[in-house]
Amino acid sequence: MKQLFTLLLLVLVGGSTMAQMAHPGKLSGVLSDSLTAAPIGYANAVLKNGDKLISGTAADGEGKFELANLPLGSYTLELTFLGYRPKKLPITLTAEQPVLQLGKVPLNSDSKLLAAVEVTAMKALVEDKGDKLVYNAEKDASNAGGNAADVLRKVPTLTVDLDGNVQMRGNSNIKVLVNGKPSGMMARNLAEALRQMPADNIKSVEVITSPGARYDAEGSAGVINIITKKGLQGFNGSTNVTTGNLNRYLGTNLNYRKKKLGISLSASGYQYRNKYSMESTRTNLVNGEPVSVFEQTTWADNTGFGGNGEMSIDYDPDSTSRINFSANVWGGDFPNDNTILNRLHDANGNLLQNFRSERSYTNPYGNGQLDLGYTKTFKPEQELSILSQYSRMPDNYEYEVGNYTSGEELTFRQQSKNLSRNKEYTLQTDYTHPFKLNGRRDTTSLKLEVGAKAIRRDIGSEFRVLQSLDGVSPMEPDPSQSNDFSYFQRVYSGYTSLHLSTKSKWNIKAGARLEHTDISGDFESTNTRMSNQYTNLIPSISVSKGIKEHTLKASYTQRIQRPLIWYLNPWVDASDTLNLRTGNPYLDPELNHAVELGHSMSTDKGLNINTALYWRYTDNAIEYLSQVDENGVSVLSPQNVAQRKIYGLNLNLSGQLNKSWNMSGGSDLRYLDVESPARNLSNSGLVWSMNLNTTYKLPRDYSIQAYGNYSSGWLNLQSSNSGWHWYGFAAKREFWDKKASVTLGVNNPFNRSMKQTGQRNDPTFAYESRSFNFNRSVRLSFEWRFGQMNTNGGKRSKKINNDDKGGR
């Protein structure tokens, strides 16, 4: 596999060198305003031969543009920019004069176009891009001052519960990317990461339900790509300050780009509050008969904090190449201190145990990541990239728990530390090559994508437990709960994909991805070893046909879900001494089949309707299962025990009622059937959700918004929970020539807390819970944007996309 990877890289690099030798032509110039002679930065320069595209680029901030590696011949140069009349120039490149310097090229302003721009309507909140749905979060005023979980609650096809757990069409095995690349923060714990990412940083959210071969095969449900607000061109920046009863945030970013160099710096700090309470009853069973009843009452009120910073530098040696480097760090501490009242009765109601647990639980975490990449563009859509990445993520869990009698006598103490770390190395290369196939009645474009990738992950987990069984004597090490665990994962992959599109609006994309995974683990303290390896061939195909305003789509793909590091860690969380939680280092991957039939319609009046029928089947599915032993202790761990089937219908609508008022909404209806013959367990039922979002622009740069969603709940193999709702209102005022804004937002103003009930059943127990999440919030956010804000149509830096890590 390593030899194949090297061979592919040499072939691609060699091909790029030959291509440059075969095309010696070069064209350059400087675009300027015909009246003021001021340079026109970031205008588009496109070279054509008839209708055939030869090359294209965007001018830099000084109006300079350059097209290299051009074949000799006669062409037409088309120059365009918003607010200026298009200009066409004849161009001839010969062997005697392969390099042509145009000097200054004036463009005439178009006053009619400028006037038209001033009265354009609002951009739709939800757009169907064919292969993905896009939610334009920056156009949603109510997001100001919130967090990423608030944003995802409004995204079509997604469901977010009160704890921030995300599902896509009933499946929580989702790959979450940030700007097209993996985020260690998202991979570590998705629900917590969403609460920590400020909504003000998010530009849009892309939902990809049927990812193609270019994406890593990981992620049974699909891919979510969170696009953050990028700095534009010139020098610019922004500052955001948010205060509220649950969320506080301070962040800034600076961006500078001139000619060939771009630098971006950002930093932020945040604080968030998590308050909840829960009551639960677990009836322990033997042969179906109750033998004891265990009751718990828990309450907690915690405030966490964190921060992040990033620096990125990109350099363009010429108009077709880019070298990019970035470094980012983030970290924080998420405490989960709580008080638990425990009561154990026998089957006749006699009290057996009555004690209080005081738990101090902390989770200091962090991540550092370096990216280095090179991208070479030969002509539009023909591109070679070589990318590398290194990251290191310490992720530690520590707790101390003490049990007290009703008379405040300390009877048990335990202290546990889990030092976990993850080092990851990635090397990736991708190549895209376009073809034009001209026929008598149709023009067909064909794009080939090939690539290879290698990932090495080195993970360590060291856990130690000290305890005092009587609560009085000094705490001593417990060797049975201590170990050192080393885990190594290697993933080698290669893919190829073909994308065929025609002027008659046929689009066909087919591909395959081959992935080989090699795993080894070592419990060093007990000298116990494990190993596993598997190879997966993942096909994918999608076909769509456009008919006037309508598009019909059909797709099939397979996806795999490797056991995540968080599933595998064998550390036992015993902070609740009668409810233990642990990982399973012996898990196998699950395989998912996905079929989707879709229809979308987009009218000239701005109405967008997207409908999809889908089917998902997962074998060897990973489910978290609880078992209760003869001592009444519950152990929760992930197991490969289930088959999961989902049949669903998804509908989303968005549109503008007039130029000032837009509205979007959607619903998802699915039938879930999950069973485990080995455990004699099954669960099935109908689950649905719906959402609605509306914004109205008022005079004098005011806008108001209302939003809400409802979900009927979730089902798993052992468990189910009741529905929940979420709603809010926001008002925004822009000023200082729209460079500053103040937003006031409220969530759930008429409910102090949201109640949710849940059940979990097994032959060994029956469990019921009632939880209360305190999520009524108010926040005030101020944002100021400064500097030159010019759009850039040029190249975008590429980074590694390890979208096979996912969230917990």
From TrEMBL:
Signal peptide coordinates: 1-21
GO CC terms, sorted: cell outer membrane
Pfam families, alphabetized: CarboxypepD_reg (PF13620), OMP_b-brl_3 (PF14905), Plug (PF07715)
Protein name: Outer membrane receptor proteins, mostly Fe transport
Gene3D superfamilies reported in the protein's UniProt record: Carboxypeptidase-like, regulatory domain, TonB-dependent receptor, beta-barrel domain, TonB-dependent receptor, plug domain
Family: Belongs to the TonB-dependent receptor family.
GO biological process: siderophore transmembrane transport
Protein keywords: Cell outer membrane, Membrane, Receptor, Signal, Transmembrane, Transmembrane beta strand, Transport
A molecular-function term among this protein's GO annotations: carbohydrate binding
Membrane topology of this protein: Multi-pass membrane protein
Domain Outer membrane protein beta-barrel positions: 378-784
Domain TonB-dependent receptor plug: 134-223
Keyword Membrane included in the entry's annotation: yes
Superkingdom of origin: Bacteria
Subcellular location per the Swiss-Prot or TrEMBL entry: Cell outer membrane
Keyword Nucleotidyltransferase: no
InterPro entries xref list: Beta-barrel_TonB_sf, Carb-bd-like_fold, OMP_b-brl_3, Plug_dom, Plug_dom_sf, TonB-dep_rcpt-like
